[in-house]
Specification:
The protein folds into two domains: 128 residues, Purple acid phosphatase-like, N-terminal (Immunoglobulin-like, Sandwich); 294 residues, Metallo-dependent phosphatases (Purple Acid Phosphatase, chain A, domain 2, 4-Layer Sandwich). Helices cover 13% and strands 34% of the residues. It contains five helices and 31 strands. Strands 18-17-14-29-30-31-26 form a seven-stranded mixed beta sheet, covered by helices on one side. A seven-stranded mixed beta sheet has the order 19-20-21-22-27-23-28, with helices on one face. A five-stranded antiparallel beta sheet has the order 1-5-6-10-9, with no helix packed on it. Strand 9 and strand 10 form a beta hairpin. The longest helix is centred in the last third of the chain and has 16 residues. The chain starts with a strand and ends with a strand. It binds fe (ii) ion. The site of fe (ii) ion has 6 residues, from loops.
Length: 432
Amino acid sequence: MLRHTSVFAAASLALAGTMLSFQPAPAQAEPTIAVKDVVLTVGSKSSQRNLTWLGGVGVEDYVQLVQHKKGKTLSWTSAKLIRPFSAGAAGEETGWEYNKVALTKLKVGVTYSYRICTATACADEHQFKTAKAGNFSFLVYGDPQVYLGTKTGQNGVVENPSAGWAATLSESVGKVSNAAFLMTAGDNVDSYTISKQPGEWDAFLAPSQVSTYPMAPAVGNHDNASNGGYLFNQHFALPNVSNLGTTAAGTGDYWYTYNGVLFMTLNTNSLDFAAHTTFMKQAIKANPRATWRVVTLHHAPFSSADHPNDADVTAIRTTLTPAFSALKVNLVIGGHDHDYTRSYLMNGASIASADADGALKPKRGQVLYLATNSASGGKFYDLTGPYPWAAVKDQSLKANYTAIEVKAKNLIATTYEVGGRVIDRVDLTRAH
Ligand SMILES: [Fe+2]
């Protein structure tokens, strides 16, 4: 996709030690810059963001970043210029190179504008806001699993996940406009055949919200593309990526903090539970004063539809959930099963409390698990069971999303059906 862009004013800019000369383009030239798949991701902490995009082969792209100031007109001449910390050939994307940039030392409570530039032109402007310290909310999306076109699914539902994903983002961000970030629980795209994935990634990253709100994606089995799925890694610049939990998808476990909360995202395409546990211990050691510990993984250990008895899910339920309890994780967010399930408070794989109402007071080692339904309407599985761990289960055959409010003593998760009702609301209150 080529985007029309503004023409640079004639200028010479010193950039990372390199003097680049910019010449004004002829008035009729309409310079363009090849840019697509522009996606912000979380940085290591709330004052950071990372940015990834695909640009032209052999073109030295960079980012201009400028802070909005009250009562002043935005001026790109004062923009900070940031070069990619990583760039290279975009696998399966002929004619494109990926670029990754870190946006650091951001101020709190500020709006920034950024745009991607080459030596001759700049692409469209995007904006993002940084939050002040304290309470915040984030949005969670299960299995967008975006593919192109439509299908009639197993429940007779006409699936159009590209359009559904865009609609869910639009509604959810309309409801939680100050969302700190957009978390996915994996299976961002659908095809196991990697040659089909570029178009799916283009559709997944087409909605404007992904250039405005940082994403915090998990990697799923579909992203893995029959063990060749390196496009996930290519499309996201993630913070604190570990070698632990790495699979052929190329991305290990990673962690980030936001206003004092520790988020750990596990690549459960790897069933090396010792590695995941070591990763979590390292992340916790690096953030000993985190107020809450939240884990995201693709393969929800406690769900209610097609996958609870799969070998990989059973192994995660049996072997990894005791580590979550031992490490005093508060909340685990998963996907994979395309239904909504809220567990009872669990200690390892055992039910720790039979309390199924929406106000929970977990004791030490008690963990709440959410299995999220499809955020795009791309696939739904019928409920099966009953399963002993399910306090609340739902199959609406409609796209879902979850908004999570984070306060000093409460984690409140509200799950919505797009265009419809509240499916569930649960409030984790801690005693201290
Ligand atoms: Fe999956």
